[in-house]
Amino acid sequence: MGRPPVSQMHVTRASLALLGRLRGPMLAALLAVTIGTNLIDFATAPAAGQRPDMAFALAALLRVALVFWISFVVQRRIVDPRGGFRIGPDFWRFSLLQILLLIGMIAVRAATLKVTPPAPALAGEWLANFIGLAAWGLIAIRLLAWNAALAAGAPLGDLGHLWRNLRGHDVSLLGAFAILVLPFAALHVAFTLISVRVEIPRGPLAFLGIVDGLVSALQLALSCAVAAVALRLATGGEAR
């Protein structure tokens, strides 16, 4: 079993301390993916009234593949400072979990939008989308430990006891997630809606893509850090 529950502040501090493991080439790769995929998406996005073409579809596939890869290597580096860019069988197990989590997020977001349909204004659309995203993040809080475990090479058979060992830690993890990750998720949703709903010249749009890439990098890194702390708690380690 895991240790007695720790406080939300301990989880928050431990998560922030782990960000120091992202430096040099790993940090550069994270920023290159989050900023680069934004710029590629903006460059291939269809004009208003036009249907997405093959270039946009290929850009979307590239984005998913790169985000899965960078999530994997960043998560592994935060769990183990020796982790590098190599991928192997553990990457495919990690990617399978990401696909399942993506399906779950889409389902929860769709259900949330039925309950809280977006208002005509852009702010209403942002609120409805953010509520769905936040709801999924809170529902799936224990699954963060699975991300960290699979990135570190754990077999699928370990996931059940990791889930059970996090019993009692949910509130602390939820609090840290809400403080560290959700603010950047809110900004990311806002920037995404602005980029697709507002007519913006290419120059300012590229600048928005860079800013949103920085926000997305922070969101991803902090989520991975909370996941690493969740794994420590699930394996009986110290949050600090």
What's a concise summary of this model?
The protein is built from 10 helices and no strands. It is mostly helical and 240 residues long. The model has no long low-confidence stretch (mean pLDDT 88).
Give a written overview of the molecule.
The chain is an all-alpha fold. α2 crosses α10 and α8 runs antiparallel to α10. Keywords: Membrane, Transmembrane, Transmembrane helix.
Please give the structural blueprint:
Layout lengths: L7 H11 L5 H21 L9 H26 L9 H27 L6 H18 L4 H8 L7 H7 L4 H11 L1 H16 L4 H33 L6
Task: Using brief descriptors, characterize the structure shown.
240 residues
Outline type: globular
Q: Largest beta sheet, briefly?
A: none
Structural class: mainly alpha
Radius of gyration: 18 Å
Number of strands: 0
Q: Calculate the mean pLDDT score and round it.
A: 88
SSE ordering: HHHHHHHHHH
State the distance separating the first and last CA atoms.
18 Å
Specify the helix fraction band: over 70%
Number of helices, where a helix is a run of at least 4 consecutive DSSP H or I residues:
10
| Estimated share of beta-strand residues | under 5%
Give the low-confidence spans: none
